[in-house]
Structures are given as structure tokens and as C-alpha cells.
Amino acid sequence: MVDSFVEVLLRRLPPSEIAGIYLKGSAQKEWESPVDYVPELSDVDLHLLFHDPADIARRLGDTAAALEIHADLEQAYRARVPDPLHLPRPQLVLLNRLLQDPEYCPSPPGAVQALYGQPYDEPPKPLEEIREVDRRGLLAQAERLKLLPLRALDRPGPYLLPLLRDLNWQMSPTGPRLLTLLGVPWEEAWSLNRTRIISRLESLGRGEFTADYAAYYLSGWDYFLSGYTDSDPARAAVAAFARATARAADIAGPPGPS
User: Fold this and answer.
1) Spatial contact of 246 and 211, defined as CB atoms under 8 Å apart
2) Distance of CA 32 to the CA centre of its chain
3) Per-residue DSSP letters for 5-37?
4) Nearest-5° angle of CA 251, CA 253, CA 258?
5) Which residues contact residue 218 at a Cβ distance below 8 angstroms, ignoring those fewer than 6 apart?
6) Low-confidence residues of the chain, pLDDT below 70?
7) How far is CA 215 from CA 16, 112, 190, 223, 224, in A?
């Protein structure tokens, strides 16, 4: 999927306008156990950086053009992999916009693979600022739990998958955020795969959190393997997400002074 997406982007967009294309997230890290990647729940995170932010609207602001890229991507992937075990879910992030978010903390260079263009060398924020952003993120995630019961109530069978995908972007950074708050160096915390995140947190006495953190991903595997027909593992994943989120907020404690 990664090679297909890069191929399509460089064919559909003028390469001279692209500063870089970067692979991040679980798809970029080593997979050591089932928690490291869950088919159709985990994303293939590609970050696209334009030299000129104005080119975003010019090149990607038209629905018809976006759908042509979408069609090209699917065709290119199926040409490479005619009979895939599953269809990976790409997620294209516009890095120009992300860098304008005051809450965004660039990743350690070791956690990013440059696929095209200039090296990824975004300067990190000061460590205390990173820790405070991580703390606020965990507390905001816990606050959103108030909306979860009604969001899950009327989604039997396969209808829980979109909810789990929406929860996934919140769950994924929870482990690294906790490690950073617990004193693990930022570069290490954000470069580990989930297997090693769990091991590191357990060594710090956070086994109750890691049990729920792992259960979310393992239940996601069970849901996928059922063909999304068995709602039990989907419900188990939602419940594990809620428990892990609440535990992470308790560990994070109150936010520091703004």
C-alpha cells in the first residue's frame, strides 16, 4: 500500500511541489506481536508536505480530483497485490496543516521514514512542553468518554468498526504519552512499537493499564477474524478502550499551569 500510494501521489501531483512524503506510525515500526498492527483498524500513516501550503487547495481541494487519486490508489495496489489478506487503510495527513497546530509535537526522526524528498527534521518542542501536551491529551481523551456510551449503543455487528477506527487515533498515542510522563526519554517513548511500550510500562508498574491497552488491540484482531460478524470482541475492545483511557488519565493527574 505504501509503495502504491507514493507512486500515485508522484504521478498525480507535480513532484517539484512536494517537499516530502513520510511514513509514520505502527506500519513503520517492527511488528513483534499481534498488538503492533491490527488489520483494518491500524492505519498506514503517510504525511505529505508541500513546499507551498497554497498548493494543498490547488491540488487536493477538488472532490473529483481526490476521487481520481483514490481510484488510482486502489487500482495500483490491486495490481501489486491481486489477492490481499486484507485491504490496508491508508491515512494521508497534510503535514503543512499539522505543523500549524500548537498541540502538535513532531515525532523523533528515528520514528519516521522519508519516502520521498527532504529528510524529516522537524525540531522537537522542549521536553516539559511535550509532557504537558501529552498530559492534556490524556485528560481530554478521558473527558470524551462521556460521549462513548451513546456512540456505541446502536452499532451491532460490523457497525462498530467505524467507531473503533475513530477510537484508534486516540488509543495509539496513549502508551507513548504515559511513558513520556513517567520519565522515559521522549525519543525512546515515541519510537517503540506497542509490544515494547507494553513491556516498558509493565516494568514501571503500570500492568493494569497495559492489560486494557493490549486487550483493545487483541479484541480488534478477534473482531477482524470474525469478519465483523461477532459483536462480542468489538464490545470488548470498546470496553478496554474506556478502561485504559480512564487509567491513563488517573496516572497523568491534573494539568500543569498554562
Assistant:
1) no
2) 18
3) HHHHHHHHS-GGGEEEEEEESGGGSPP-SGGG-
4) 140
5) 34, 35
6) 255-258
7) 45, 27, 21, 12, 14
Cell reading at 100: 500549524
Say how many CA atoms lie within 13 Å of 85 toward its Cβ: 5
Q: What is the DSSP letter of 82?
A: S
Q: How many residues does the chain have?
A: 258
Cα separation values, 63 from 70, 94, 114, Å:
10, 16, 27
Q: Which residues contact 216 (CB under 8 A, 6 or more apart)?
A: 171, 237, 240, 241, 244
- pLDDT score for 146: 94
C-alpha cell at 180: 513520556
Rounded to whole angstroms, the Cα distance separating 220 from 35 reads: 9
pLDDT of residue 26: 83
HEC string for 60-72:
HCCHHHHHHHHHH
pLDDT digits (tens, 9 = 90+) for 214-224: 999 999 999 99
Q: CA 50: distance to chain centroid?
A: 21
Tell if the pTM clears 0.85, that is, is over it.
yes
Query: Exposure of 49 by Cβ count < 10 A (0-12 exposed, 13-18 middle, 19+ buried)?
Result: buried
Helix (H) or strand (E) holding 116: strand 113-117
Residue 88: the pLDDT is: 84
Give me the pLDDT at residue 191, please. Answer: 92
What is the reported pLDDT for 89? 84
Task: Give the end-to-end CA distance of the chain in Å, rounded to a whole number.
Answer: 42
